[in-house]
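Q: Fold this one first, please.
A: Sequence and structure below.
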Amino acid sequence: MRHLPLVAAAVLCLVVPMLAAEGQANSEQQTAQQPQRPGVQVGVPDGRAGGAGGGRQGGGRGRQAGPAGPAPRSADGRVLLGGATPKQRNGVWLPSGGGPVTEANMKDVPFQPWARAVLADRVVNELEPHTRCKPSGVTRPFLTPYGVEFVELQELQRIYIFDIGGPHTYRTIYMDGRSHPATLSPSYYGHSIGWWEGDTLVVDTVGFNEGFWLDRRGSPHTEQLHTVERFTRKDAGNMQYDVLIDDPGAYTKPWKSGFALRHDGNVDLFEYVCQQMNYAHELMVGSNDSVDRRSPIIP
């Protein structure tokens, strides 16, 4: 693997991102009624439990780069989530700081006791699936130092979110008015349906598995997880990401959080080979003092 210079960058960021193709089982199946969750309102109001700042995610390229122009729009006036202009297709969205759970808001997140204990252990022993090349749903892809790319195909009525730091897995958001299937095989990205509310893309997702962390800190969840995300592009360079998390298996009530994303128009999708040979050993040492790498490590 000596020919892969990106390995060094991934280790420095404490991330060896994954991405493995994750099929979306039963994605075409539809039902007449969308699942309802008591106490969960579609659309996340202002007033988040979290916010920018804190967390352990990188995002140096997402720093403020000067005043941004207006958000790009299609011919019919709808905001676009791609490039900085309607003709510019390249560019990625990078984190500006924070995450769903930060040092500042951790005490306000309604963890069940077992979930809080799991998080405490993960903070010390960072055996994260994402650094072992596994896909990550919900907020985790937006917290990588490589960013994500939005691709909208209006003729297919779908939006794709590409997670760049890995073998190019992607998430599909169905924009054709369908409902969630009556039955789903749990997956890393779940089943997402979306719609527009003004300049905000609203995405409702169910059908997650338990094989990923909600964020880089290690927030747990169960297969009961249901999320409502809101992507609001404020101008050419800035987007607000808000999320409502409803998981009665891990939390005592639904809770909200969010953080900012910044657009870098000078970056495009690139080849990334995810390492599965424990190169990010700092994330595996945890509560121990060191790791012995003189012999091969078999997971």
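Q: Good. Now the second chain.
A: Here it is, same layout.
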Amino acid sequence: MTYKRVLLKLSGEIFGGQFKQGIDPEVLAAIAKEIEKVKRHKIEIAIVVGGGNIFRGLTGSNAGMERATGDYMGMLATVINALALQDALERINVYARVMTAIEMRQVAEPFIRRRAIRHMEKGRVVILAAGTGNPYFSTDTTASLRAAELDTDIIIKATKVDGVYDKDPVKHKEAKKFTSLTYMEILNKGLKVMDSTAASLCMDNDIPMIVLDLMHKGNIEKAALGKKVGTFVSKLIR
């Protein structure tokens, strides 16, 4: 089954490449090419980007900064990543629009649900930045919220690992990979896939999700075409 409309969630750390900070042009170009592969199938795409490669609000809070201020700074970091991704896409002739939850009309459009849907219907990639526009909400929660608003068929959460494990596979070689999970299992097991607010939103609105390795070539395309890849997460067991 090919999905008609997907929401791709990209963490900010991925943009930073090996050093997990700043923007690595080679990684950016590789991400753009993976998105272009999906567009060849006439699949509509919305993308939610993180900003952890530039600034993470929770890190600022842990260092003594007011949490709301840190979160707003993190939202601005996602806009930088969104603009960089837009440029990378348009350099390979994939038309994109950046839409932000915080108005900054000189650099991007404000997020308006109907306008975002219209952009996708016209074949443009919609890049959603500045989170929900509110502090205390993660970009995972943003992805869940926008997926529900834009009536997407699935969330593709692109990470640095090839699925969901019972423990960190980098630190534990015996870590077990799940091929499928329910959102309730994520909450009950305390798996570090997404925060509880995001998981609950997906569960309540019956939005499935695939967690996969972004940098494995072709993974996003396979997921968008309904092929088995990564870990499939849903309200009920598939």
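Q: Anything worth noting on the second one?
A: Residues 5-234 form a domain with the Carbamate kinase fold (CATH 3.40.1160.10).
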